[in-house]
Amino acid sequence: MKKTFLIISLLVSISAIAFQQDPKKEKSETLAKNGMDPVCKMTVKKGTKLVSTHKEKQYGFCSKMCKESFDKHPEKFVKN
After folding, report:
1. Could you tell me the CA-to-CA distances from 48 to 18, 23, 34, 39, 74 in Å, in that order?
2. What's the pTM?
3. Left (φ > 0), alpha (ψ -120 to 50) or beta: where does 69 sit?
4. Summary mean pLDDT of the chain
5. Contacts (Cβ under 8 Å, ≥6 apart) of 67
């Protein structure tokens, strides 16, 4: 009986750890503040989920097409 309880407790603990979300990852999934799409120069509102990070800076995009263009060649759209 004790063995079964321990096994169940262990499985519950492992499941809880496995399904925890990384707060850093969650933050990077949405745009933190209003900005400009580096590809087409359109305004992008805070909270969009179309984001990429390049050299530790977050960029937001108006469309999947702009995001894909940026992801292929970010240096083409970002001034050093």
Report:
1. 27, 17, 9, 16, 19
2. 0.63
3. alpha
4. 83
5. 50, 51, 52, 61
